[in-house]
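Lab notebook, entry 384. We have the chain sequence and a SMILES string for nicotinamide-adenine-dinucleotide, and the next step in the workflow is to get a structural model of the bound complex before anyone spends time on docking refinements. Request logged below.

Task: model protein plus nicotinamide-adenine-dinucleotide, output structure tokens.
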Amino acid sequence: MSAATVNIAIIGAGLMGREIAAAIQRWPALIDHPVRPRLTAVCDINPAALAWFDEIDTVTTKVTDYHELLADPTIDVVYVAVRHDLHERIYIDVIEAGKSLLAEKPFGIDQSAAQAILAAVEANPQSFVRCSSEMPFFPGAQMAINYVRSGALGTIVEARNSFLHASDVDVTKPIGWKRQNKFCGEAGVLNDLGLHTWHVPLRLSWAPDIVYGVLQNIVTQRPDQDGALVDCDTWDNAVLHSWATHDGVRFPLTTETKRIDPGQKNTWVFEAFGLDGGVRFSTKNPKAVEIFAVTDVPGAGREQVWQHIDSGSQSVWPTVTGPNFEFGFSDSILQMWAAFLAERAGQLGDRFGCVTPQEAAATHGIFRAGIESNDTGTATAPLR
Ligand SMILES: NC(=O)c1ccc[n+]([C@@H]2O[C@H](COP(=O)([O-])OP(=O)(O)OC[C@H]3O[C@@H](n4cnc5c(N)ncnc54)[C@H](O)[C@@H]3O)[C@@H](O)[C@H]2O)c1
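Result returned:
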């Protein structure tokens, strides 16, 4: 198959800009992908951040004003990884320039920003837009999603999706933009980690009709760059208990997003239990998928039985990696991009895809309900 070349530009050459640039360099690992991306351009307001991209031969354009990239007719797709307060302006500019966009979460700093971006998406159908969420591309997560879809759980009793960090346990860690509402957004940790915990539930059509929020601001001050203590006003941890519906039956669905969960380090967990079976996957043990069923056990009769599967390396798009080998975070980024560019080319088929603009915007309605619920102590319906 001859793959169509797509030129990519990155806006924001920080943590995620580099992660994505590195993932694209591993593209030949994908088998028979319909698209061949070339990273040709990068923009950052900080010229020093651009130097890292000297390592990548295909990058021929390095600029400090992103409008130059949007005016470049050779660029097809833009990945934007900047502070949340900058999402709305830059995403809308990318979309209105007719470029395709892989946006970073949380897809705007709040619900109003997300709705404005969504309106731009709907007004500019030539721009293909999706939002970043890579953890469901772990093969174990895919196995768990497919297990739920198979109907093996029967009537669902409960489900949970969590994203757990201990990144902020150290109270001397400097404040940074992610810990200030004016840059990160009023939803705090929900803006940072929440979309990662709603991609799968929303894809399984588990949009909640009511939300109970339990939010914590544990560390209220942190040192700034000069060591002076300043207010740290973002929510550190947020647990959203909600009611969702599967096959006409309501069940409790919980999402957890925590920056202060001692003992965790980028742990993404999905589990769902029903009357007939259950499934559990955690990136803490990234090969293992546990499934549960009530079965006949010789000599013991009907028993509740847990089984453990090693999920191997293969995710949504096949790779040259041996199927028994291990999978990691950077593989999940590659798979997310494989899904994004295949869907843009109309060739994703029934494979699992990236977060849609509608799903991303819906998460802000859920976060808003969680915050209101926490403030008022009452259950709150998400605004749609
Ligand atoms: N998907 C994930 O797993 C994941 C992980 C971390 C962060 N993120 C998201 O990625 C985004 C960026 O986070 P990060 O950790 O990479 O941030 P970062 O602070 O490491 O990098 C942001 C970069 O943007 C640059 N920048 C600021 N204003 C700019 C502008 N107007 N034009 C061009 N560049 C500009 C900064 O100089 C900086 O280099 C956020 O939305 C964040 O929530 C996603």
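Notes for the group: The CA atoms of residues 180 and 233 lie 6 Å apart. Worth checking against the assay data. The two ends are 42 Å apart (CA to CA).
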